Amino acid sequence: RAAAERAAAERAAAERAAVERVAAEKVAAAAAFDRLCTEKQEEVRRAAKQPVLLDVANIGHHSDEEGGSISWDWRKVAKAIGHYEQQGVDPIPLMHPATMRRVSPPPAAVSAKLVLVPSSASSEKSPDDRFLLRMAKRLDCQFVSNDKYTDVSLL
After folding, report:
1. How far apart are the C-alpha atoms of 95 and 129, rounded to whole Å?
2. What pLDDT is attached to residue 152?
3. Per-chain mean pLDDT for the chain
């Protein structure tokens, strides 16, 4: 009986530690989001240009007409960045680190501008989508994406 009680206490302690770890990760992710937004707000203020956020995962990722073959094209991302720069707008291309690991390395011109969103402790399917929406709200700017955002619990 004493052994069973000890085992139950150890399980409860492990569960509490896991909950505390997840809570700490969420706090760290929120702090990273705030730091990144503050940095971007300062950059936007210095540049005196209207920003536009680019959903890099959505822009660079595409499939064939039947929806089967999926490929990645950094040229599409570079073209979007160039288009907005020509319009006098400050493009801010955002990408999740997990997506970055799944695709080929970006060209230097894209890499220099690319902003990796903070990793999240969230179990959401698309934390980068939520980040993009929150950052657009915080910077009071438009964003470019073809996503339907059906898998994101908004702000």
Report:
1. 9
2. 62
3. 80
> What would you measure as the largest C-alpha separation in the chain, in angstroms?
74
Cα separation of 149 and 133, whole Å?
10
Q: Is the dihedral angle over the CA atoms 131, 132, 134, 139 positive or is it negative?
A: positive
The candidate with the shortest Cα–Cα distance to 81, out of 52, 47, 41, 49, is 52
The 3-class secondary structure across 79-95, one letter per residue, is: HHHHHHHHCCCEEEEEE
Token pair 């801010």 is found at 92
- The reply to whether the predicted model has a pTM over 0.70 is no
Spatial separation of the C-alpha atoms in residues 9 and 95, rounded to whole Å:
42
The string of pLDDT tens digits covering residues 51-91 is 899 999 888 886 556 655 678 889 999 999 999 999 989 89
Contact 40, 23 (CB under 8 A): no
